[in-house]
């Protein structure tokens, strides 16, 4: 298993654990936004929005450029990639669940087709493939 | 974009934002564990371990079965799948970054090999593969 820094993953998942911050990421995915634009859809003050933005910055998810009084924020997606890579190590567990469901459905189907039900190779193949 | 319940994603990412809980998930990926077994690798009390386990349960990541005084915990991976699906919507941003890097490297390489630099098909192929 690739080892990502614990601190980076802590910051990433903490940043994603809030619906306002996830909505801000979704907005940033459409293009750069000022702090005011990021705050606008939410019932929060500019100071409240700034706190969320700082959490996103801390997680490396947001790059802020300051020109005079305008702070322009851009999405930085690399930490999200690390999150996906971490989660993917558990992929076999949900695909195993799907295999089990598949096997159940085949078994339920078996009485109608006894000849095919005896032949267990296809389900074994399915299992090793995933 | 598939809409997952905000509450579920909050619970999932909150559960993943702690290194002890991520380590517990990694242990559970190897097989069922008792609460004592989950606590053992960490410098925490059983009560401390129980709190982490409750957070994992709340996120739907852990199923606990009680037989007498033994609580056996099992991994439930489905919420992790939802997390991956949510994160994948941002995949185009990190692949775009890699493509840009690829283009830069090719451009830097171009003056030395003008004949190959003109042939743009390989870079287009690379882009569609990702």
TrEMBL record, chains A, B:
Residue ranges of the region described as Disordered: 110-130
Regions of compositional bias (Basic residues) in chain numbering: 115-130
Domain HTH arsR-type: 1-95
Pfam families: HTH_20
SMART domains from the UniProt entry: HTH_ARSR
Domain of life (superkingdom): Bacteria
CDD domains: HTH_ARSR (cd00090)
Coiled coil start-end: none
Gene Ontology molecular function: DNA-binding transcription factor activity
UniProt protein name: Helix-turn-helix transcriptional regulator
The organism of origin for this protein: Thermomonas carbonis
């Amino acid at each position: 298993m690739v080892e990502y820094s614990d601190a980076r993953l802590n910051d990433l998942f903490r940043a994603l654990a809030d619906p306002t911050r996830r909505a801000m990421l979704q907005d940033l995915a459409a293009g750069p936004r000022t702090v005011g634009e990021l705050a606008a859809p939410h019932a929060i003050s500019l100071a409240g929005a700034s706190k969320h933005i700082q959490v996103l910055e801390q997680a490396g998810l947001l790059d802020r450029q300051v020109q005079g009084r305008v702070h322009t924020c851009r999405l930085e997606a690399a930490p999200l990639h690390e999150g996906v890579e971490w989660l993917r190590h558990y992929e076999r567990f949900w695909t195993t669940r799907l295999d089990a469901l598949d096997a159940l459905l085949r078994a339920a189907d078996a009485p109608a087709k006894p000849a095919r039900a005896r032949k267990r190779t296809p389900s074994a193949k399915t299992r090793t493939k995933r």
